Amino acid sequence: MTSVDFSKHKKAKALKPSSRRPAKELCSECGLCDTYYIHYVKEACAFINQQIDELEEQTHTRSRNLDNPDELYFGVHQEMMAARKTEPIPGAQWTGIVSTIAIEMLNRGMVEGVVCVQNTKEDRFQPMPIIARTPEEILAARVNKPTLSPNLSVLEQVEKSGMKRLLVIGVGCQIQALRAVEKKLGLEKLYVLGTPCVDNVNRAGLQKFLETTSKSPDTVVYYEFMQDFRVHFKHEDGSTETVPFFGLKTNQLKDVFAPSCMSCFDYVNSLADLVVGYMGAPFGWQWILVRNERGKEMLELVRDLIETQPVMSKGDRKAAVQQSIPAYDKGVTLPMWAAKLMGVVIEKIGPKGLEYARFSIDSHFTRNYLYVKRNHPQKLEEHVPEFAKRIVGQYKLPE
Ligand code: FAD
Ligand code: SF4
């Protein structure tokens, strides 16, 4: 990447926190509009100007090959694997591969700062984006804040600090806006470490989700929708509570997810250099996608700290996805005993590894396609990327 004379880029006044965002109800609070880079919002916002194709080309030198089944689903990549830290970081979301890579990059001087998100003192789920300059600050950002987080709100500080080498950790909508303004940031080197992301909520929505789903909402430390078709809640006392997906109170939870997340098709963070999630890996393992050479450089730093295995794929998701479409649409909730039984059966015979990832992508893309079609019909054609149209096209959707 060549350096840019950033004094020449255009600036506009950041919006006040209470002002309505240009993407209106579709805003994911990515943080761009909290900075003077709001000047570029019409081109940069993932919900105003979907441009994954062009940005894939800018970032990885080519857009995904839609005729390659793995690229159609998971985006441009050189390598995919399952991995876990041999010594997991206590309190990380999974085994802490994300935090470990960030710490190594800082310790080795590859970057001067890391954009990541801690939580406020008062509320463990209230996001507080920062530019970390020490390993301790990165560690304090470990674990998901399962809420919309304005990670890009610190971008003005990057430029003001004169930093030239930066790592940004973030989810798809944040990274799309970041890529669109990347050349204006005055950086010599930008690394992007992404996680997949789906079904995010605002802080009030999170409270509703916890209260309708967990037996003890106030003691939840973190949660994850796991590959065994259950939500796992970890509580303050170290205990784990599990609730089968099929037992979720869909009728009450229908409006809980943010409209931005109901209209997102970048589940797998297409524009990051390296993606670390879990859904394409066996239970207990993380899933890594190396998208380009920068991603490879980042992963090399932790090769000695992780064990890996090849990705696998088992089962057939298609019937389960097709059945779930009208069930979700009608807000069907099973009695808990039936949900538990269904969970046990599907865990035994259901999709595993990459097929589980495809199950999750298909279920969310079909749901989101219907949402956009019904709520923002004028956006449907432009907003849904070609790869998502092909994925959704495999299923029969209700009107
Ligand atoms: P850790 O070492 O614990 O680090 C987590 C990092 O995430 C921190 O650096 C922090 O800065 C960053 N972060 C935390 N919250 C946010 C946020 N709201 N926005 C941006 N960055 C944040 N993976 C899947 O495979 N499938 C999914 O469906 C899926 N859904 C997710 C939904 C959300 C809202 C988020 C934030 C992540 C999701 N992930 C998903 C990713 C997965 O849960 C883990 O974050 C990932 O595997 C990294 O785990 P770790 O132990 O290496 O991370
Ligand atoms: Fe602005 Fe980001 Fe909201 Fe789009 S999603 S309106 S860029 S804050």
TrEMBL record:
InterPro entries (alphabetical): Co_F420_Hydgase/DH_bsu_N, FRHB/FDHB/HCAR-like, FrhB_FdhB_C
The protein, known as: Coenzyme F420 hydrogenase subunit beta
Coenzyme F420 hydrogenase/dehydrogenase beta subunit N-terminal domain ranges (all copies): 80-156
Coenzyme F420 hydrogenase/dehydrogenase beta subunit C-terminal domain segment(s): 164-311
A GO MF label: oxidoreductase activity, acting on CH or CH2 groups, with an iron-sulfur protein as acceptor
